[in-house]
Specification:
- There is one protein chain.
- Among the domains are: about 1-275, no CATH class; about 500-555.
- It is built from 18 helices and twelve strands.
- The chain has about 550 residues and is α+β, with helices and mostly antiparallel strands.
- The protein is flat.
Length: about 550
């Protein structure tokens, strides 16, 4: 592909891959092209400006930091059914714990997730489509039960269903004879490959393998645990026309990323295709600018025929006898043709800016205004504009990531990770629900920033009005606001008490308040009774009061 030479020169060779020969001879050509000859050093011979190469790397790094940051979590788990009841506290804690386990699995170097994910992002920015294989680890451990492998785009032949979802992949790739025996075992391969693996001179020769994954048309072999799985899987030794193994997958095992879905085709074009002509023009102009600069610094020399053939010494302080006429005129002079490297640089910079804009590089930069400080409102507005502009990129990326999470959960379920007695045993409410990803990347948080700040500002206003009109805060559900804030900000659920614990604390607080009120009432009653008794005693001792009481008694 022409794009690879200008934006990803170290990518797999499209132009010579499987271009000549058959069988082992054809793959030997591929091995010589990709392994023995540095691909990038050959391709970059015609690259005179690094802007496009840098832009793709910077764009992939920007997407990594804003959509799938390596230093934090970028998705939660929740019930896929929008009409499902809200998860209780036990379910919420399980969902959070399972999410953290997925991220710890990906972070394990044995899983290979981050190298594969970064390679897939660069491929998607350069070519518009990228593929990653998500499978059970060959040697699964508790910390790394899943393996992730980036698959070069040239190895894949994809197809989609009627909805435009990729559900078929014919992957044609190579393994050395030794690697093939390690992966499939000597009994699954032909005797020729087994013999090659045992021969020190032949063990590293390439073997062509075809991995066909497609929707299953009929049940697989009897005795297979996944004979009724939705997708069939078949490994074939191409040269010997031999089936190595047959199995199946309960989820499509390949994560396919697209730059932007504009059709139901299996392949999409990336941003590079939109500015490829600009990139090529930039490199041609950079080449001319380089020649112009060289001519300005080291211009060609015009000399008189009398000194033709005599080498001119241009070193500092050098003496060139015979290069001056009797009249004092030099017989050699620089040949200046009005080179303007400064003008060429200005044109080049304009084209670089256009390429950086097309590849979104200006949007990945931190929001900084060097001329003046921004108010908090302006900063929020700029962040919101940035999120809106990058929204389509994040949405397209998250389609593949969503299916990846489904694949991971399926693998863990079949391994018994959520069964009874497991540290990740699923609570009863979770067992009856389908689980899916809910994305919480920095870009997703930026989208929700305006709504969250509006809610926070409204609560602040309510708090202020409470002092003017008591009862204003009764219009707010503070518990709901706390849960909303925790979810929006991405704070861990485990730092919050459960609803049952909160209810118990509030009940105890209410009972304590009632007991305190009853005690105060008893004290006040006792005081009142004591006052009446004292007054009666005083009246009985007063002669005037006694006379009045006697008269009242006679009446």
């Amino acid at each position: 592909m022409e794009s690879a030479a200008y934006v990803l020169p170290n990518a797999e060779r499209y132009d010579r891959q499987f271009s000549g020969g058959t069988g082992g001879d054809r793959l030997a050509t591929v091995t010589d092209t990709v392994v023995q000859t540095p691909v990038a050093s050959e391709r970059t011979r015609d690259v005179y400006d690094q802007t496009s190469i840098w832009a793709v790397s910077r764009g992939a790094a920007g997407e990594l930091s804003l959509i799938t940051p390596q230093t934090g979590t970028w998705h939660d788990l929740g019930f896929s059914d929008p009409f499902a009841p809200d998860p209780n506290d036990e379910a919420k804690r399980w969902l959070e714990g399972t999410r953290d386990y997925l991220f710890s699995t990906r972070a394990n170097p044995r899983s290979g997730f981050w190298p594969s994910h970064k390679a897939a992002l660069r491929c998607k920015w350069a070519f518009g489509t990228a593929v990653m294989f998500v499978r059970d680890a060959v040697s699964p451990t508790v910390s790394a039960p899943i393996s992730y492998v980036y698959i070069p785009l040239s190895e894949n032949y994809l197809a989609t269903n009627f909805e435009g979802i990729v559900d078929t992949n014919y992957r044609l790739f190579t393994l050395s004879a030794r690697q093939a025996v390690q992966q499939f075992g000597p009994g699954a391969l032909s005797s020729k490959v087994a013999d090659m693996a045992n021969d020190p001179k032949e063990r590293d020769k390439p073997i062509t393998i075809l991995h066909a994954v497609q929707p299953r048309a009929e049940a697989g072999r009897y005795g297979s645990n996944n004979r009724n799985s939705p997708f069939s899987s078949c490994y074939i030794e191409v040269d010997q026309k031999r089936i190595i193994s047959e199995a199946g997958y309960f989820e499509f095992p390949y994560r396919v990323d697209h730059w932007e879905r504009t059709s139901t085709r299996p392949y999409e074009e990336g941003p590079v295709s939109l500015c490829l002509a600009e990139i090529k023009s930039l490199n041609e102009m950079a080449k001319s600018e380089l020649i112009s600069s060289q001519q300005s610094v080291n211009p060609p020399i015009a000399s008189h025929e009398d000194v033709a053939g005599v080498r001119l010494d241009l070193n500092p302080g050098a003496v060139n006898p015979g290069y001056m006429s009797a009249e004092g005129r030099p017989l050699a002079a620089p040949l200046v043709t009005q080179q303007r490297p400064d003008f060429a640089q200005a044109v080049l910079e304009a084209r670089r800016t256009q390429i950086r804009t097309t590849l979104y590089i200006d949007l990945w930069q931190t929001i900084i205004d060097s001329k003046r400080e921004m108010t908090a409102f302006e900063a929020r507005l700029r962040a919101q504009e940035k999120a809106d502009a990058l929204g389509p990129i994040g949405t397209s990326s998250q389609v593949g990531l969503y299916f990846q999470v489904e694949r991971e959960l399926g693998i863990l379920t079949r391994m018994g990770a959520f069964g009874r007695g497991s540290p990740l045993e699923a609570p009863e409410q979770v067992r009856s629900e389908e689980i899916g990803a809910r994305f919480t990347s920095p870009l997703d948080k930026a989208r929700k920033l305006g709504e969250f700040q509006a809610a926070t500002q409204l609560v602040t206003i309510g708090t202020q009005l409470e002092g003017i009109r008591p009862g204003t805060m009764d219009k707010f559900d503070i518990d709901e606001f706390v849960d909303y804030s925790q979810e929006t900000l991405g704070a861990p659920r485990r730092i919050m008490a459960t609803d049952d614990d909160v209810a118990e604390v509030r009940q105890a607080r209410q009972e304590a308040a009632q007991a305190e009120a009853a005690a105060q009432e008893a004290v006040q009653g006792a005081t009142a009774v004591g006052g009446v008794a004292a007054a009666a005693d005083a009246l009985s001792k007063s002669p005037a009061a006694s006379s009045i009481l006697e008269q009242l008694a006679g009446v």
